[in-house]
Design a protein that fits this description.
The structure holds five protein chains of five kinds. By secondary structure, chain B is mostly helical. Helices cover about 75% and strands about 0% of the residues of chain B. In chain B, about 85% of the residues are buried.
Chain lengths: ~160, ~100, ~675, ~525, ~500
Amino acid sequence: MPSLQDLAFLGISAFTLASAAGVAFSRKVLYSAFSLLGTFAGAAGLFVLLSSDFIAVTQVLIYVGGILVLIVFAVMLTNKIGDVKLSNQSVNYKVAVPFAAAIAILLISILTSGMWVQKDEAYTSMIVPIGNALLQDYLLPFEIVSIVLLGALVGAMVIVRREVK
Amino acid sequence: MVSLNSYLVVTAILFALGLYNVMTRKNAVGLLMGVELILNAASINFVAFSHFNGNHVGGNVFSLFLIVLAAAEAAVALAIVVSLYKQFGTINADEADSLKG
Amino acid sequence: MGFAKIAFGLVHLVPLLPLLGAMINGFLTYSGRKVPKGFTAFVACGSLFLAFLISVGTFLYVSGLPEESRELTVTLFPWIDSGSFKADVAFLIDPLSITLMLVVTGVGSLIHLYSVGYMSHDESFSRYFTYLNLFCFAMLTLIMGANVPMMFIGWEGVGLCSYLLIGFWFTDKEKATAGMKAFVVNRIGDFAFIVGFLLLYWTLQSSGAATVTFTEMRDAAPMLAGKTWNGVPVVMLVTLLFFVGATGKSAQIPLYVWLPDAMAGPTPVSALIHAATMVTAGVYMIGRTSFLYSMAPETRMIVSTIGFATAIFSALIAFAQNDIKKVLAYSTVSQLGFMFGAMGTGAYHAGIFHLVTHAFFKACLFLGSGSVIHAMGGEQDIQKMGGLRKYMPVTYKTFLIATLAIAGIFPLAGFFSKDEILWQTFNHYPWLWVVGVVSAAGTAIYMFRMVTLTFFGECRADEHTKHHLHESPASMTIPLVVLAALSIAGGFLGVPDSLGHLIGWEHSNLLEHWLEPVFVMPREHAMASHSTEYGLMAFSLAVAIVGCYAGYVLFSKRKDIPAALVARFPAIHRAMQNKFYVDEIYQFLFVNNLLRLNNFLAKFDLKVVDGIVNLVGFLTKVSAYISGAFDRIFVDGLVNLVGNAARWGGSALRRVQSGQIQTYLYYAVGGVLLVMLYRLL
Amino acid sequence: MKQDLLYFLPELVLIGTILLLIVTDFVAGTRAKAVFPFFAFVGIAGMMGAVAATFYLAPTTFFTGMVSVDDIGRFFKIIFGVSGLLGILLSVKSAEVEKADQASYYTLLTALVLGMMLLGSANHLLMLYLALEMVSVLSYILTGSLRGVRRSSEAALKYVIYGGVASGIMAYGLSLLYGMTGTMAFPEIAAFLKANAVSRPALFVSVLLVFGGIGFKIASFPFHMWCPDVYEGAPTPFTAFLSVGPKAAGFAALIRFFLVGLTTPGQDVLAGTFLAVKPVGLVEMLTVLSIATMTIGNLAALVQNNLKRLLAYSSIAHAGYLLMGFAALSQEALTAVLFYLVVYVIMNVGAFLVVLVVSNQMGVEDMAGYKGLGRRGGRGTYLALVMTVFMFSLTGIPPMAGFIGKFYLFGAVLKAGLYGLAIAGVLNSVVSLYYYVRVVKVMFFDAPDDARDIAIPAVSQSWILAGLAGLTLYLGLFWNGLATVTERSTGLYASAYAPPVAVAAPAAPEAAAPAAAPENK
Amino acid sequence: MFPYLSFMTFFPLVGAVLIALLPKEKTDLVKKVALVATLPPLAAAVKIFMTFDRGSTAMQYVEGPYNWIQAFHIQYYMGIDGLSVSMVLLTALIATISVLASWGIDKQVKGYFSLLLLLVTGMFGVFAALDFFLFYVFWEVMLLPMYFLIGIWGGPRREYAAIKFFLYTLLGSVLMLLVMLAFYFYSDGQTFNLVELAKQGLHQGPFANPHFRILCWLGLFICFAVKVPVVPFHTWLPDAHVEAPTAISVILAAVLLKMGIYGILRINYPILPQETLYFANMLAALGMINIVYGALCAMAQKDFKKLIAYSSVSHMGFCLLGMASFTPEGLNGAVLQMFNHGTITAQLFLLVGVIYDRAHHREIAGFGGLAKSMPQYATWTSFAFFAALGLPGLSGFVSEVLCFMGGFKTFRLYTIVSVSGVVLTAAYMLWTYQRVFLGQVNEKYKGLPEISAREIVTLVPLAIITLLVGIYPKFALDLLNTSMTALSQFVDAKNLAGL
């Protein structure tokens, strides 16, 4: 008898994968972008199921609120809305399909037979441990990522800035 | 009882879909979406491993960083795409082939 | 004995004096300085004559020694010394080498003298004498060398000089070719000689007697008995190989082909090198290594057989030749055959005896022919001569004497030496005796054919030549006379004991007794009785006389008989005239195939060996193109398949080619997959 | 705490420099163009000085094992510093870089050096990933920094997409590794793998996927294809830098990941070998990748006509050679890799500098433009001569330093018993001769198409070239000093192996100490 | 003690640097400096010849071992024994001669002579180095100048020839590199010292496995075989020779080819004696093939220089045959043959150069009757030809006979076939001589100037040596005899111990 949790997992993962497939196979780039939203949301759902509420929130904030918006902007900026083609055609797919399938099958077979470090799972909020970790053990990465972000900001500006006369 | 393996199957498929995407898309933005799929797969993996390892904090932190870095990368990548488009009017990655050989 | 002793002390100068002469003249030639011909002639003749005097002194000195100590080695300095292999520059002075030294320096001096007249008009006068002196040096080294390598120096040296002298008038391509042919054919013999020497040396070495000197080898030779290589007795192999070497140098079947061509050189050269001395080196070598031949009866039989076969074969060819020098050349080959026949019987002294007498009369004949050619203005065809005895009395007389000598008319030199050979042959290989007698008869006939055509009858030369006919100058006739005298008297060196016995001259065979200590004789062989010997002697003399007469008659009074014979058997005549096509057969069988092989190999080298390497290089390049353009080709095809290329066609940007990031990724994923599969499956 | 900051001094210097550059940009703007390279140069030089000044500090790990500060890290910091300085020197006079925004170009370059330093000292999966991303993102930007130059933007696009995928793959691999061991610090991973059974295929796959990210940085098969396009498209001075700096950083990361994260010191410590903790086929994998990488690089280079592309493929091939050292998994191999990297930096930057000068002077990057360069006399001959030195050094012919590098590498490989790999390596060297020598051939054997005299390149560039060529020759003959340095770096690295977290085998420090001993006799 | 060997090795290098600094226009000065740079080594060579201890098997004029690269125990270690001394002397002589023979170079004179001197440095170094690494470095150092000398100053197909030469040699030397490293790692105390390696023998690690030893032997052998060159690795030689300028051909034939044999004798023989014995049969067979094949190919050549090149292939076969025998005779013969071939072939190439300079082609068929128009030239050529075909009394004979002597003891059949080379050599040499010098004078070449004094000067010392060694070989043999006998005994001892 599947528990509620199981059902939730099944539902969310099916949704995630379906929208991922939408991203991959959709013929229009805008559709892909919207499918991506589903994937991101699905992933956030999975995070919740995995008791990582903080990550789930971050996911929604950054991915949906940041990246996805960026992507949609990019799509808009680089295509005329009315462009029927709104090109998202595929190349290589005759070979890519078997490749991707092979990768999936190999990974699934290897991973499901793998030996992973497992302890009793527990559903506790991760916010506190994450907060502690970020300011103690992971202080350095936390600082560095700020430099990376700074660099990315500067760089993005450099790249899109208009030609200096 | 949802096992770790169920999550692994999901991420494996997600990963493969991401790879498929980057192999086939013509549109540079489309390609970037593939990258995001892959990163999401990795992210879910981290959290899942973390969860099934007694809520080990490392995986969570890693996935947090993954998300942030993905954002940074996406920003730069999209900047490049936009700039290329502004200069040359296309973002079809397969047309960017003046470098080859 | 003062003179003799001093002379012996200077014996190493015997070869070195001519070398010095060659160096002086050679330097003058090279520098192109004009020096009086007299000086050149003086240096050349003088050095050799001095060597002759020293040889005579040495002879006197050695003959004064007791018989058992007539074997002296003069060592100058060590030559090759490596491992067990030690060879000195040393000369062996024993009766055999002294005999040959006397012949070479003596006859050589005469021919040098003759050449002064003969070559007086040649622009390369000094070059000629350089070569000639150099030849004497090499020949003397050959006969005086105390060990095999020393002998080989001379052996090759005479080959070199023969090459140089045959091709003396090198602007004539045929003459140059003849020289090359001589050298290369000789080298084929040398090949066998070297192999034989190597085999001999290592067999001796393995028996504990690593030596190359003749005397030590002789002492160690008994150890060779019973030694085999691949089941064949080593002695037999070695002697056979040496004999092959000898066939090259001494123009025996199958390597005789070079000698007739060698007549391209100046006639005195033919006299000295291709009649008197060099060509007899093979005979000398067998004599020198008699200790081996005496242990190998099978080889001796082969030697005799080849010898007599050559004798009759070349006699047959000589019948049909019209070039005076060619006739003499084939006659030389034939006489050399006799010598080998003698060596094969184990009667080495007989071979050497014939060698000596042959040197006298054949040198005389060649010089005489030279005189004739000189007088005829270069004409060598006997069909165009005739009646010359009126014009050139001295030449005629000496020539006739020498011819009689070669024909074996008693009591001229040839009679004794040839008779000794036939007698020994009769005792050992009676059937070869038959061949020998037939050849002897043939010799008499064709020699008299030549004499008749040349000196008797009407002169067939054109008026212009006839007008110029004259006797040669004294520098040319004096050697002729001396040689003719020697042709008469030379025979008394070896009067058979059976004949000497009749007149109460014990040990009348001087040469045999003189040479006795040198040779190791084979096992005693039962000899037929004296009476048989007398009978045979008489028989061969009769044959010779008949032959001479026949030769005279057939080509003066009854010319119709040979003409009829020719008409009856044209094919045979033609074959004889063309020397039985041996040259052509060799050309066809060996030379052509060799050249074909060469060209094939050169092409093989160029195409295949190099080609393989180039192919590898090419494949590398191809794979480089494939990997460099892997995506281009592969993806191009794929994209064409999809049909996208056409849609975006027209713009350079839209050319769908490599440079596509998707393709790169696809490639990367493929690689990951590949590595995974490689590891996991 | 004060001491702790001292450990971090080089990084701090660079961070200060970056801030200074940003501020200067705000304050001075475009007016003070010349000041940016100067600041960056001084900053990087200061960083190297700081490394030297803190050399006496004992090796340790930092931030709860996130980064380690040890001799091998310092060694790499110096390499990065040198390549950074060379990158700046090359950029200063470059016509191409003039088109870029000066302030941000040098700021990002400095930041890139910082990222490389972090990558070189990362001792933790997260740090590894983070530093790698930092290097990547900054590289993308710098590649695309030439505004209005199509090939630059195009290269950047390819670079970013390829890099994104590679980092995604790597992240996925990292997650598997994390799931397998439950930890992210390298020494702990190794200790765990040594103590516990894991699924071998899963471990292999995870290592392979992680290698995807690092292999992308070092341009190894099968993640090499971006390399020629990006090298060709990027501004040449940056390409020169890219071909040595980030590549060296990739190797630094590889060293830590493989030798600290996946292996423990072997029993045969005296021989200096490492043991791959689990027989996951690490050696086979690296062997295959190494052979494939050098072969593809060399073969593809054979047909190149553009010098930059040729050098790009050549750098792929060199990554293959360097990977041989990892397959050998030994102390010698590590020394060899370090040695080779130094030599590689010198000769590769030298070659790129020649390309740069020629393209500035003659406006060509194609082989045809090099026709008869050595016959033009004067500067042309000079350029051709130094180029010849670099080409032969890259081929690996004595007495150039490149030979010594190969000598070291092949030695280590042979000692490890990988004869097949060694033979593949030398055969590749022979193949590589063909295209390197083709450059030399074109320069000396062919007649120039025109009588143009090559203009005198900037004096500073002449001197840099002379210095690099001189070093190439000098290190080919007298390499004892460098050898000692590299050996000491790895020797101390081995002794610093034991992490402060007390999970590793306690025997390691004692066991590793004698590893260096015989060398110091 | 004065470091003769280092002096000889590096003095030309100093000259090379000096030349590089001279002004471009002063070509005469450049040539003079180059000549002067080769004379002191020549003087040193004479001194070595006078004072070399002929009775000792030890290394002489030893310098070092000084530590060079401690990290790898690499030493600067120079020294010569009976094997190398003849080669060092030959190199000194050929160096001077090649500078003289290059007097006519008029293109990029500076570059030419500095490369030439650099090449000389490499050659000396190879023969004097006793440290394997040092040996390798010098070995490769020769490669670069050679490549340029052929590639820039060569004939029409010079680029092809140069790259071919380079690739072949490099392929060989990378194999040597691998074996060298294997030697190093599995020797006691890890050393590159060749003397020490020979003393030790190698039995550690993989060297305990005979297959590995055999592989190592083969690796070295291929490297050296390319240089010798052994058929089928020889195809670079005709091309390189034909395209190279005269002086470079001379160096190539006289010195570079010797390095192959020298390497086998210096490295394969003492360090891997058992494997050498194992392959002796193959060596001899290859020697035989070289002799016969080279001679046959030579006969078919139409290009004068190519013919000489193939004759080199043939002549180097004698060395292989002799050294494969492991007898003192054979080894002495092989080394002496190296020396003799060096002097004789140098003359041949110089002579070809003489005619090429005048007629600007080398087609054998295009000449004829030159003996009439250039009698002195013809004399020199005939001397060299007869020396090359092994005329007794000239040096070639002595070494050939010794090679045969040695070879016959061990390999009868191969030697017998090889002796046929004597016939073939005579055939192609004389045939060539005839086609070029004899017969009707070709009208075109009637007025060719006679061989010049400078050209004669290059020939005279070589000719004197040819004659001297032919008449009094002790003069050269004494130098090698002790060492070669010791080597053969050493291998024999291994033979008894191992089999």
